Each structure stands twice: as C-alpha cells, then as structure tokens.
Amino acid sequence: MNTDTCLCQIQAMNSLPEDCIAKILSLTTPADVCRSSAVSRIFKSAAYSDNVWNHFLPTHFPAGFTAPTDLTTRKQLFFSLAHNPLLLNDSHLSFWLERKSGNKCYMMAARSLSIAWGDDQRYWHWITLPDTRFGQVAELIMVWWLEITGKINISLLSDDTLYAAYLIFKWNDSPYGFRRLVEASLVLIDTEMTDDVQPSLVSLMQIPGTEEEAPCAVMRRDGWYEVELGHLFERRGDMGEIEMSLKETKGPFDKKGLILYGIEIRPMP
C-alpha cells in the first residue's frame, strides 16, 4: 500500500462523525485506542470519549467497589484500575483490571484462604512484610500435612475468558521438605464434573538434575514466586464457586519455610 493510498484512507476516516469513530475504537483494544489518538484531532477526541472506555470497563464491579472521586473520565478510571489494585472485603481481596483487555483480576490474601492449622502458632506465624498489598502473610513454621484452599465466586470474573489461578509465595532463609512434587487443582464446585477432575503435580522448587517433568514455580518481577494451580474458561451465565488448592498430605516428613502471600486469579495470555 503506497503513501497516497494511506493518506486517502485517513482522510476518509476523518470525515466520519466522531461518535462513529468512537464506536469503531470501542471494538478494538485499549492499546489500539491509545495509539489511534496520534492519527488526527478527531481520533484523539474520540479516543478520550467515555463511551469508548466504558466498553473496556466491567459492566458489573465486585461488591464494595467505589470509584475514586478524583477520577473525572472513564479513561482515567480504567488506567487507575490497571495500575493501582483496590482492596475489598476487609482488605482480604485485591481487584484490578488487565491492561490489555480490561478483564477483571483478583488476588486473595492468605488470610482469606483455608490453611490447615493456619491459626495454630506452633505451625504458622502471621507476619508483616514490606511492599505487600495485604496487612499480613503466612509463614510456615512446620507441618507434615500441607493443605491450602481458596474459593471465589465465578460470577466475579469476566465473561467468556480463560482464567488461571496461581499460588503466590516465597521462601524464608531455611526452607525444607519441598523437593517433592505437590498436588495442585482448580475446579468449579457444585457441578457434575467435580468428581472427574484430577489434581496435577507441580514443583515449588527448581530441583537441579530432576528427571520428573512437572510445571515449576517461576519468579515474578516483584520478587515472589508463582505456580499455576489450574485454569478454567468462564462462560457467560456460569454459576458456582471456583475452588483452588495446593496440598501435600502423603509424605510423612517436615515441611517448613514457605511464606504464603495468597492466590491470584487472572486471564491467561
């Protein structure tokens, strides 16, 4: 396509009404909308339209959500939610939007999870760490039976989106007992398929020279590790709770040194 043809197409687009251009932009992506603002003045004006950015914001926000009062446009609200997660449910749930799509993302604090013996100080300590969005994280002192479970209502997720859940954690100075594979699972409970779901095996530690092939935890940019617990496609109209778990209950040996941040639920790439 030559330069003259491109210019003709741009001029033709610029002749469209602004609300028509805004409708076209709303069918693209947030990144495309931002790039289009450099095309011309009318595209720039359309790219700032609340009608465009309403398309990328959720139709339904989670209970307890209140938009910050200092944000005067829907574009500002979108990017605020993409870069600044909000705390809900007594600061036990973090909510934000995926920047490239506007799909909803969540992180459940360790305090909101069911942890076997989590309230017994002989086995777990609740500590505060800097640069975390929740008030406390859980540090494993010692257990034989490791079982961590979280539940979230599927209605909180964005429709027709493939989601994955990740356990977010790190190690203290003396981890022990995690050189074996552990069970991870994700299931939509209260459905006929619940009993057919088999847990997968994952590795929380990278073990040099191991011959076992299993998904392994990877370090994130924030210095925490994450390991996938499972994934699920949320279809419009789905109902029920998603149950996510990680467990190691078969090996009669000590496990210690894990620091649990929470479980993150976000769209898969």
UniProtKB/TrEMBL annotation:
Occurrences of domain F-box (ranges): 10-56
SMART domains the UniProt entry points to: FBOX
Gene3D superfamilies: 1.20.1280.50
InterPro entries: F-box-like_dom_sf, F-box_dom, PP2-like
SUPFAM superfamilies linked: F-box domain (SSF81383)
Name of this protein: F-box domain-containing protein
Lineage of source species: Eukaryota, Viridiplantae, Streptophyta, Embryophyta, Tracheophyta
